[in-house]
User: What shape does this take?
Amino acid sequence: MGWSEVLFPSLVVCGFLGTILLVGIGASYLWLVWLNKQTTTCPKCGKKGAGRLVESKVIDAKTHLEGAAGLPSDEEWRTHTSGLHQDAKAVRIIEETYEDHFECQHCGYRWTREAQWTRSAPTKKPSPR
Ligand SMILES: [Zn+2]
Assistant: This one.
């Protein structure tokens, strides 16, 4: 068996996998673009991608600790932001609800959309105020 007989199938497999990878990246990119167009489609005139985000504000935020013994309530958390009552291993989970304000660049129609965002923050080093 010569080198070319081993090399050729490997190249075919590599090329195949590479194509799948590229198609995957391309598909997810197109999906993101599509998703973005869906969110920015004007509900009034139906113009795709015409919506422009003019304002985004947090309308609701829930905070809870995960992994801590004796979960403090939101109120307790606010009182003890200095880091006194915190378990070093605990992770602060922040659930924020955003209200996004869009404005259509085509007809000027304004609409709002709610979006939820969950993020975690370490409790070990609270950010200095
Ligand atoms: Zn419009």
